Amino acid sequence: MKDLHISRMKLAGIVLLTVLLTTAVFFWTGEIIGQEDRQVISFDTKSVDPKNIERFKQVWTQITDNYIDEVDNNKMLEGAISGMVESLGDPYSGYLTPKMMAAMMEEIEGVYYGIGVSLTMDKDGLLTVVEPFKDSPAAEAGVMVDDKIVEVDGQDVTQIKDDQAIVAMVRGPEGTQVKIKFYRQAEHRFVDMEITRKRIVVRNLTDAMLDAETGYIHIKSFEGEVSQFFTETMDVMLRAGAKGLVIDLRDNPGGMVREAAKIADKLLPKGIITYTIDRHGNRYEYDSDENQTRVPIVVLVNQRSASASEIVAGAVRDYQRGKLVGVKTFGKGIVQRLSPVTDDAGLNLTTGRYYLPSDVCIHNVGIEPDVQIEPLAEYANKPVSYIPRDKDVQLQKALEILKAEIEKTGTQQ
Fold this sequence. Notes:
Elements: E1 4-8, E2 28-32, H1 50-66, H2 73-86, E3 94-96, H3 98-109, E4 111-114, E5 117-121, E6 127-132, H4 137-141, E7 147-152, E8 155-156, H5 163-170, E9 177-184, E10 189-196, E11 198-201, E12 205-211, E13 214-219, H6 226-239, E14 244-248, E15 254-255, H7 257-267, E16 271-278, E17 283-288, E18 297-301, H8 308-318, E19 322-326, E20 334-341, E21 345-355, E22 371-372, H9 393-412
Parallel strand pairs: 2-20, 13-14, 14-18, 18-19, 19-22
Antiparallel strand pairs: 1-2, 1-15, 3-21, 4-11, 5-6, 7-8, 7-9, 9-10, 12-13, 16-17, 16-21, 20-21
Helix pairs in contact: 3-5, 6-7, 7-8
């Protein structure tokens, strides 16, 4: 497995890490390490109360000897491992069974079998729909933004704090069905759906030339090879005569930090994009070089812009490279490391905090845009991709600002 740096509420997220259960699923900010990077594990029994070890042994024995039905010892041990991580009380950390780890890697690569939604773990620990993808099984079934998953195939998942465990339950072979109970917050009611799983190919970027001199790029997550697609798209727009760009990070729960840094590098002057610090004080920096596009830019953000999205938006703001337009971002400024456990399971663990170039950590704070503007009430809970451009007041404000900057740049030339 290659050494990859990742960010998502998906998930925490955010990790963004989706089913695209992204990742997204939860908002992530972190890295993946390979087998060769693992350290030899030493268990410090001196810091553990011997009574707790004895209690564990006694409970294990009581269950295996006396439980009414046959028990699966491996499943029980995996539950103990999961409980160990859950004891941290961190919604962004979790143990991934082999099935969950495979789902996570599918998500990162951008192809999987599921229902086609972008998800995030909300502040109450409920897996919440950020966006049902257009033409996806979820969209066809009527899944809506902010629907919260409360049951999967009859099992209550509201107490499961590991979002990847829920992701693994929702995903499955193509053509099979999954029964999901949602809580529809906007209507204060529960909604039961039976959805057929399909092959989902995640599109992490959409683009358009809005007029002869204005390019629009909506980055949906920082996964896969989105930085390459971004660079290619931007280059085509500039060659076509674009004099300014709107970079839309709304509804983007995060993804790989490395991908976010590569995109920021194309927009920013030489300097620090972001840096992380772990509990031991170790610092890791992501830097930009002197090569950058110099056309004016405006960045759109909203309450579902998290993690890697906040890294890009925050760096643009700190370097005064462009205006931020929209509403305050989610506020996820901690780092997870996804590492292999044995050959096929994984551990997603919060290991540090990330900081913007201004040395600010935005965790639980978010980023206030330069220009605050709410969407129209009728689209307040709609994904950005569902809002007609002529009704998208945030986009219209961004275009207004961008046009003024283009004119100013033209006058200066």
